[in-house]
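Notebook entry, structure prediction.
Reason for the run: the old model in the group folder had no record of what sequence produced it. Starting over properly, with the input documented here first.
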Amino acid sequence: MPGAWVGRSVLVTGGNGFLGSHVVARLLDEGARVTCLIKEDLPLSPFHRDNLASRVRCVSGIVEDVLLVREVLRESEADTLFHLAAQPIVGDARTEPLQTMESNVRGTYAVLEAARKWGGLRAIVVASSDKVYGEAVRLPYVEDARLSGIDIYDASKVCTDVLAQAY
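New structure, fully documented this time:
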């Protein structure tokens, strides 16, 4: 839909990650005003390589901070939220399960609660993973397939999906 993003205010959590960098670039190309909530600097990401930081409002913080997320939504007058922030590495999830759950599960319910309290959003997009379906019995995956993650990373993403559906 040409022009659908022109002038719209969008908050992207994890906007400097791999997926986030590409979403942010596209939103900017489509004319959106973008705010990014960023936990840590990722100097090797496309976000920095393509100098996207100079074209967006960057807010430093963590998605687990519901008050911060709500304030960023309010200040930016966001009408759309892309929740892309997560601990994305399966191997790291195995060595740091608590950190993974904090980021992926607590971070998701904090963002969704902040969005509910803000009340000004037209749309929310929450990133998922094929890991929520466990071992593939048949491909391609379909969204109504049974959620059956196997390890800690999978479980964190299953929780993310269930929380998104519940909110």
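Summary: The radius of gyration is 16 Å.
The old model has been moved to the deprecated folder.
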